[in-house]
Please model this.
Amino acid sequence: MSNPTIIDIISPVMAGPSSSHTAGAVRLGLLARNVYNSKFDKVSFKLYNSYAQTGKGHGTDKGLLAGLLGFGVDDKRIKNIFDTPEAKNIKYEFEFLEDFNRHPNAVDFIFDGDLHFEISGNSIGAGEIELTKINGFQTKLDGKYNTLLLIYEDKPGVISFVTKIIQENKVNIASLYCNRNAKGKDASMSICMDGELFEDQIEKIQELDDIYVIRYIKKLES
Model:
């Protein structure tokens, strides 16, 4: 058995040649899947810049689809993901674009199913990822924390109500990111936490009026 090199130590275990284009793609797909968290019949992938130019050769298209279907980064089936029963049960399409206002390794996921969702993200290197936009709202999700995501009608008291429930569970908030279209219009909130929320806490938050979307997103496995 050969000794591991420094590349073996620092690189993520993955089925593919590139941490950004393959492992990052799988993790982006997994996180987008967890955010959507509903049945979907069709998904469109829009790949930008470097992702569009070298994505096929590096398996980016396969990685994105595999993650969206729930496959892990080290799953050997990724190589032939298009032939799997899971892939054949949905409709999917890829579009390859250039937009230099976007990150070099950027992708949009457009879901059609029980809900219509649009999720944007970037692969930022060494398998690290970030989701930057959900249904038009700016966000910051990297899959490293358990995260509560809300889309709701902007009104006084929502943030304090939600954070109080989290604090009552003695869970530390690692970060809180809010975004809104305009005062009194639709808003979003993503709260990254060091601990976990339980079903009864989530149900209390669901009781708030005018909560359009609520998701409890578990952190991705390393």
User: Anything to note?
Assistant: The CA atoms of residues 31 and 143 lie 7 Å apart. The first strand starts at residue 40 and ends at 49. Residues 4-17 have pLDDT under 50 and may be disordered.
